[in-house]
Amino acid sequence: MDASQRYRLSNGVEIPCIGYGTAPLNEAIGQEMPVGIDEALVCGYRLIDTAWAYKNEAYLGAAIRRSGIDRKELFVTSKCSNRFRGYEQALACFKESLDLLRLEYLDLYLIHWPAKDGPPEQWQKLNSETWRALETLYKDGYVRAIGVSNFWPHHLEPLMEHAEIPPMVLQLEYHPGYIQAEPVAFARAHGMIVEGWSPLGTGKLLNNETLLEIGKNYNKSPAQVILNWCVNTGVIPLPKSHNEARILQNIDIFDFKMSEDDMSTLSNMEYIGGSGWTPDSITW
Ligand code: A2P
């Protein structure tokens, strides 16, 4: 396996096996010019994950043009913000993103977080209305694939009941200590490819003794061990870094194979920290 490997989504579209996450790191919140995107493109990342809420789409679009990389080689994802739930609103959110990116289409468009306020009929209907907008964008050729982010089975089931087109991707927080086994199994059983955000546990796993020890077996850093584990569990990792050396390190993960014991240690780690955000705790 190497960084150029792609999975096939249920509609036949191919998605890279690793991506670059652009959610603002704490020190960069509010900055208009996130560092890292140009470097990621140079280092070989072809999947770039953004969102309306990250406020970096104009910068990302400019970085793509600067890179000179053929648009067809890239896989650009954005997400419909919580501020734009509902059919017309979601279409408006998408238009803003596309205008900011100055692209003609996106490869993947996701609902960022499920609605969940009020009685179930209310938020389920709202999620279905948002989904209907994504279906329209897909049918009209503005997006090559559609999916959801941070949905758990109890959000996905009602959405799928009313969907004309089933979600092709589930993106969720995924790292050792937080493997979200139930949503991942549910997504796979329904033909979705899974992407993992904050695969490094928002950085909280990087000084972990067990990971440092396992890394010594392969002469790799804890981050590389985690990302190798992630791709080998079939989940697309979306690591974030603003540091050129670490951006490169995070894609240099395909030249070693971990033992079954080491893989199993990572899959069975205790929770030692992550974002703390869950679909049921996000209210914005
Ligand atoms: P930095 O930008 O200084 O590299 P996650 O993707 O799980 O949310 O983790 C992001 C955090 O992990 C950031 O704080 C980032 O900081 C740090 N990070 C990313 N890659 C590495 C790496 N290879 N080694 C150490 N820290 C890393």
Could you outline the blueprint of secondary structure elements for this entry?
Blueprint: E1 6-8, E2 14-16, E3 19-21, H1 37-43, E4 47-49, H2 57-67, E5 75-80, H3 87-101, E6 108-111, H4 120-139, E7 146-149, H5 153-162, E8 169-173, H6 181-189, E9 193-197, H7 209-218, H8 222-232, E10 236-238, H9 244-249, H10 260-267
Parallel strand pairs: 3-4, 4-5, 5-6, 6-7, 7-8, 8-9, 9-10
Antiparallel strand pairs: 1-2
The structure holds adenosine-2'-5'-diphosphate.
Adenosine-2'-5'-diphosphate (A2P) binds at residues 21, 25, 198-203, 206, 221, 223, 239-243, 246, 249-250.
Characterization of the model:
There is one protein chain. With 284 residues, the protein is of the alpha/beta class. The chain is 38% helix and 14% strand. It contains 10 helices and 10 strands. It has an 8-stranded parallel beta sheet with strand order 3-4-5-6-7-8-9-10. A two-stranded antiparallel sheet has the order 1-2. Helix 6 links the parallel strand 8 and strand 9. Helix 1 packs parallel to helix 2 (57-67), helix 2 packs across helix 3 (87-101) and helix 3 crosses helix 4 (120-139). The protein is globular, with a radius of gyration of 18 Å. The model has no long low-confidence stretch (mean pLDDT 95). It binds adenosine-2'-5'-diphosphate (A2P). Adenosine-2'-5'-diphosphate binds at residues 21, 25, 198-203, 206, 221, 223, 239-243, 246, 249-250.
